[in-house]
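Quick illustration, no need to memorize.
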Amino acid sequence: MSSKELKAALKEAREAVKNKKYSDAIKLCNKILREDKENYMALLLMGASYQETDKKEAASYLKRALAANSDQTVALQGLATCADDRDLPEVCEKLLALTPDKYGDLHGKLLGVASRGEQVEKVLGMFERETSKEGEPDRVRSAFQCLSKVLLADPALEGKHETLVERTLEFEVDNPEDPFLHDKFKRYLKLLYKLKLHEKLVRKACAMHDRFRNDNYPLEWICKVYAEELIDDCSMEKLLTKPLQQYIDAAIEIKSDSAL
């Protein structure tokens, strides 16, 4: 096959894929690959042709395309639609570096992998790294939202990832529009006590009280920290947004027999 014939065959194959005539595209690409086993465009088109009928076969051609060309973006984007859960996190990780503006779609794919119970630890590590992207607040927000859906849906993960859960909840309770804000605040305060982050516990309890004035839960934590002398009186007064006695009085007024 001459260079001119090769270009014509690739052009015809692209048109066939565009028009969803996949069997025609496969025949053309097979003809090309018999003469040039590593033809990048033919491998990409084979991957595209098998996307709807055989994702495993599509993935095999796209992996060959990755090995055949230094510019991996197109092949990786194809793989992201057909790779199995074992390979998808690695594909997404590479695409996050190559196409960072596509973070939303890629985060969604990673969330799907974790929600199916596959490679949860690997996905959590990737999302944790995503939360450290400086100057990309929307990307960081997306990563924390995904972490929340993975971590907070499985209590068993909290014991293994307490610090990450704490960071995630800290981010989540800053969203006043969250319909589950109250429950997340409660879980957060309890975790802060467990982690012995007493000063942060007091600050966040004050924040919860400001948001939920008629709820005794944050007041109970403030009183508990004070009663157990976990913070000295001087530091306590600096952390509170109003005198301690006002919190104590409010706790008694809302529920006189309150106890954690």
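Residues 192-260 form one domain.
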